Amino acid sequence: TGTRPPAAEAGAEEVLRRIFGYDAFRSGQREIIDHVVGGGDALVLMPTGGGKSLCYQIPALVRSGTGVVISPLIALMQDQVDALRALGVRAGFLNSTQDVGERRAVEGALLAGELDLVYLAPERLRVEATTRLLDRASISLFAIDEAHCVAQWGHDFRPDYLQVSMLHERWPTVPRIALTATATPETHREITARLELADAHHHVSSFDRPNIQYRIESKKEPKAQLLELLRTEHAGDAGIVYCLSRASVERVAEFLVAQGIPALPYHAGLDARVRAANQSRFLREDGIVMVATIAFGMGIDKPDVRFVAHLDLPKSVEGYYQETGRAGRDGQPSTAWLAYGLQDVVQQRRLIDSSPGDAAHRRRLSTHLDAMLALCETVECRRVGLLAYFGQHGTQPCGNCDSCLRPPESFDGTIPAQKLLSTVLRLDRERNQRFGAGQSIDILLGRRTPKVEQHRHDALSVFGIGTDLRELEWRAVVRQLLAQGLLAVQGEHGTLALTEASAEVLRGSRSVALRREPARPLRSSTGGAR
Ligand code: ADP
Ligand code: ZN
Question: Which intervals hold domain Helicase ATP-binding (predicted)?
Fold first, then answer.
């Protein structure tokens, strides 16, 4: 560090103005760029929209040689390269979508020193021909984009990305800059370790996105809830609706279109041409609602996305943050809205139980889900919870989330918790039978359903002891006990089971605070941002 020639400083500033047309660096960019221009390594944790790209693009233009950008986003390389070329930057990419001719042309330009930047898919690094090519080229820096993909702890681990750890072994003198928009302390540590960046310049931005209003409500009739949100607050706005499955993407898109809303589907099962056409309409036209699986969105730079709606529970807080972060890149008020229900928890647990990988992997997934549930069920400011998850502690309630705008009431829920846990305990004794939350709730409500009668559950002492709460409220109790670790859900039928902590509640040595379900969810007319 500190070896940067004085000329380089002017260079960075000039490139910012002349090529990118901006007057000033944003917070953090200058230090990062100076450090990399001077030949140092950097690790950049900056939220989506923070301006990470310039942090490697400018050093690549200031230093001599070609900047090599490792990126998993193959589908976006063409767009990224086109955008750079439009600015007069000499850029190219190498990935599996090219034919031999195209690849040869880029390789030739690279060796001739005619490229400022070349984008490379990580799996290319496994190909000996690629590493030999890089040996013969003059490289100004390596940029490792979406660096969280090297972290097993994270939500988006890609085995191919482990290849990037060989970069500094093979080319020890070339500076590296790793960048990501995901930054829990665990992921930060793992990236640092795997890429050996302990001595690098670490930049950690604030992860707050103050213009995004976070709202999480319970799922009743998801399509109707979504429609109300779009009609009352986001008529004519562009937005993204995330669904878990391809089938629900199709259903929801059809539903919105039938309601007169210009919606398009996007998921990995669609023909590549259809996907590309839908994506480009979303980017170029106004007011399109993209209904998508999480296959959509990484690297999409559309500034005026006014809302991101989740109709299914994200698998992790990291995922939730990334997906909601696609709203409001232009800094204007935007909504992050999530509807979730008990069924989501059951479904996610089932996915975890049946996921390939070892026990440690399943435990990690389960920890991620628990943190997401805790965020959903908190009575505190959502933003405070979110930022704390990313290691930013001690922030004040934000005034721009549902918890702040309409503080949820909490009440002493020890007795309902005990009623529910006693029911689960009794059902658990029926060794050869497995019952989900629905059966427990039917018993508490004293409903003589065929399944209740068949198993003689109307003879249990807990039958009918929960008529003081409605079904919806019981579902909320189940969700909150799950979120608090006082109940577990297992197996393919979503069987409820006690945890070690449940015993304390049953014994009466631990009390349980619960959040009261609001009669009506927050809408802009009742105090939203817009
Ligand atoms: P990220 O990769 O962190 O999500 P980008 O690099 O795509 O973010 O930047 C987000 C937007 O901010 C882009 O439109 C970019 O051109 C713009 N931007 C970045 N740095 C600056 C700057 N110093 N001044 C003005 N705009 C900037
Ligand atoms: Zn808040």
Answer: 33-201
